[in-house]
Amino acid sequence: MKQTLLILLLISLISCNSNKNSESVRQNEFEKYIESLDQIPLPLNHNMKIELPELSENYDTSGFLRFKHVWTSKPLGLLYKNDKSIVTIELSIGDIGLVPFLVSYDLNGNKIDSLGPYKKSGWDMGYEAFEYLTINKDRTIIVTDTVKRWKINEDETDIIEDSLTITMDTVLYQITIEGEIIQDKK
């Protein structure tokens, strides 16, 4: 019985050390990846007519593949970093080009939150939406949009020109120190 308990205790200690080592390796890999990213100058203004800056050309590709958001294809850079969280902007392939996607992590590389700020942008028969993004130094995000809608003719082949309605909206977000991305309620 004592021998079995001793073996179980040894297995537990080995397992505990193994977990600590893998956490340490993950943290080191995440730090290496984050250090390979360029700092994004703020405020950042973007819409589908404004090109994103060319940043993080020499990023750690293996780190990005390990820590990236599933929908993104490359990093833009580092947005915010403090002693509780790190926020990056990664780029996702949208309908008309690369679009920003915000991802927050804890200091070990575990994802906390994410945001694809463009919810309405796009074109279709009878629909046209354009969004404009501003990310500020104070961790606020402003997304403004203009949406145009037309009624469609009876055989659904064209718009009815004089049926245009235009709406505009603004959505505000705040990124907390802990890395949560919270939509401000109006």
What summary fits the major beta sheet?
A: 6 strands, antiparallel
Q: Mean pLDDT, nearest integer?
A: 89
Shape: elongated
Strand content: 35-45%
Order of helices and strands: HEHEEEEEEEEE
Task: Give the number of helices.
Answer: 2
- The radius of gyration computed from the alpha-carbon positions, rounded to a whole number of angstroms, is 23 Å
* Structural class computed from helices and strand pairing: alpha+beta
Helix content: 10-25%
Report the end-to-end length measured between terminal Cα atoms: 65 Å
Molecular structure report:
With 186 residues, this protein is of the alpha+beta class. The protein is 22% helix and 38% strand. The strands form 2 sheets. Strands 1, 6, 7, 8, 9 and 10 form a 6-stranded antiparallel sheet that branches. Strands 2-3-4-5 form a 4-stranded antiparallel sheet, with no helix packed on it. A hairpin with a 5-residue loop joins strand 4 (97-105) and strand 5 (111-115). Helix 1 (2-35) crosses helix 2. The longest helix is centred in the first third of the chain and has 34 residues, at 2-35. The termini are far apart.
Note the topology:
Blueprint: H1 2-35, E1 44-47, H2 61-67, E2 74-81, E3 86-94, E4 97-105, E5 111-115, E6 122-124, E7 127-135, E8 140-149, E9 165-175, E10 181-183
Antiparallel strand pairs: 1-7, 2-3, 3-4, 4-5, 6-7, 7-8, 8-9, 9-10
In short:
With 186 residues, the chain is of the alpha+beta class.
Keywords:
6-stranded antiparallel beta sheet; 38% strand; alpha+beta; 4-stranded antiparallel beta sheet; 186 residues
